[in-house]
Inverse folding.
């Protein structure tokens, strides 16, 4: 199979309308986490019609397409669940229109992240038409439940499907830049216990709200002294919820609960984050408290329940790593320009792919991440074409 970058780009351009139509078809279908079945079945038919060697669902409902049967393994991933539309008044058009006009595909999920899936299906079609014969297996994964629990789908792929690639391309939106990492995150509950008493004699009790409030104020101060990484930026923490309980509204509160959103930069881990909070409790002399990392358990569209701890590790790939350097070469071959190499501000499936399993990752996707989880989502068709070319040429050079 002899080809070159110009031919690949020309084929991606030839299938411009085809790629846009794939995306339009799936944008028209609501696809919340756990409700991806209809979209997955549309994508399965597209993969089959494109001639993929194997197309199947796993137990969690991830769709896994395969081309080739070589000793090296490359995976190209797109989650196809979306967030909900939010306030419809903020949208200038129907979020499920999937309209193709003015050089864009319009609608919810077009950027985050169904555009990547549409592009890599076309890339797979191109590989098959060219008579793909490399010593390579390429898996094309459209994955589920990411918006509810990022990385859970890939925990299933690695641990249950027993697929562990040599590298993964994540197709989350990068505005056609190359991304090589992002901060991690975790969710944390601090449960604080007190002693109830009648509200007419509060001195007889131990008010958990007061204790929780002191903890919250110290967490606010902690946020100012967290680690900073030159590439990934600063770690952060915020109290996102404060709950309390008491026998009645005429009683001293005997329970308070803080829920935290903790963003982890390089060098910060679950253990270090918990230790910082424990130190706050110790310094305040609060002994009746526990720090808990919640456990997510979700129900897939297949009916399977599956879960993981809500700890999503930080990851980054060295800019000189072969997967990044190959990405630079592929980009330059195709577009005769140097790519910008950067990072995501949000979290992706990379938290398990690399954060748990150490699999090298390169990020490259159509669309601008500013549209992720925002109204009026749209993706340029030019981006879909370029992403298609990138995925195909990357596979041919892997």
């Amino acid at each position: 199979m002899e080809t070159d970058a110009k031919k690949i780009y020309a084929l991606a351009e030839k299938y411009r309308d085809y790629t846009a139509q794939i995306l339009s078809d799936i944008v028209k279908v609501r696809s919340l986490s756990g409700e991806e079945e209809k979209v997955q079945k549309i994508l399965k038919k597209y993969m089959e019609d494109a001639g993929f060697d194997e197309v199947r669902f796993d137990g969690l409902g991830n769709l896994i397409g395969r081309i080739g049967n070589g000793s090296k393994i490359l995976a190209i991933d797109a989650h196809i669940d979306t967030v909900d539309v939010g306030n419809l008044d903020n949208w200038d058009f129907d979020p499920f229109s999937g309209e193709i006009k003015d050089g864009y595909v319009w609608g919810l999920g077009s950027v985050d992240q169904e555009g990547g899936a549409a592009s890599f299906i076309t890339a797979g079609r191109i590989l098959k038409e060219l008579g793909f014969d490399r010593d390579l297996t390429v898996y094309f994964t459209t994955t589920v439940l990411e918006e509810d629990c990022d990385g859970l789908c890939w925990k299933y792929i690695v641990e249950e499907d027993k697929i562990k690639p040599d590298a993964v391309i994540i197709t989350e939106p990068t505005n056609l830049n190359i991304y090589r990492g992002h901060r991690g995150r975790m969710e944390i509950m601090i449960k604080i216990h007190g002693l109830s008493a009648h509200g007419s004699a509060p001195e007889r009790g131990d008010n958990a709200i007061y204790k929780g409030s002191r903890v919250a104020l110290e967490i606010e101060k902690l946020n100012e002294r967290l680690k900073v990484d030159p590439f990934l930026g600063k770690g952060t923490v915020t109290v996102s919820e404060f709950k309390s309980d008491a026998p009645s509204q005429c009683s001293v509160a005997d329970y308070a609960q803080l829920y935290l959103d903790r963003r982890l930069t390089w060098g910060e881990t679950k253990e270090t984050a918990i230790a910082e909070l424990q130190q706050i409790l110790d310094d305040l002399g609060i002994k009746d408290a526990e720090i808990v990392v919640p456990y997510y358990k979700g129900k897939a569209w297949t009916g399977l329940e599956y879960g993981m701890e809500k700890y999503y590790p930080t990851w980054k790939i060295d800019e000189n790593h072969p997967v990044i350097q190959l990405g630079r070469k592929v980009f330059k071959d195709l577009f005769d320009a140097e790519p910008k190499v950067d990072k995501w501000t949000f979290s992706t499936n990379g938290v398990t792919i690399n954060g748990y399993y150490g699999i090298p990752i390169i990020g490259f996707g159509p669309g601008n991440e500013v549209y992720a989880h925002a109204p009026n989502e749209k993706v340029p068709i030019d981006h879909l074409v370029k992403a298609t070319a990138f995925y195909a040429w990357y596979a041919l050079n892997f």
